[in-house]
User: What shape does this take?
Amino acid sequence: MKQQFAQTLRQAMENAGYAAKPAVLQREFNSRHPAEKPITLHGVRRWLMGETIPSYPKLQVLSDWLGVPVHDLMHGTTVPSGRPTKTPNPSRPMGYEDRQVVEAFLKLPAAPRRIARDVILAIARADEVGRSS
Assistant: This one.
């Protein structure tokens, strides 16, 4: 069961646009988990290697992040490709660089944020027009 979990976790990370590496898992997991004590690199490496399975609350964080039901993570059932939760377009998972842009955007004051939003929407509209032509 531990090996099934590890294989499913690695596949879910890749399907969500992440490299299945301990440093990536540690960073992304700790940014989403509301614990006082973050998970260590050694701890997530043990998950990826199939040595341990996280507790249910930690499985729930992984499930929410990767868009894979807890049951599927635990039992190694098929992982849907490219379907992380809370991603605006499931066919194109948001990668690390895109996430950095979104985080930078959210830190902007209101006026520059409005300008950035207007530019992005104008580009998106032009792209839609170009595709429909």
User: Anything to note?
Assistant: The two ends are 52 Å apart (CA to CA). The first helix runs from residue 2 to 15.
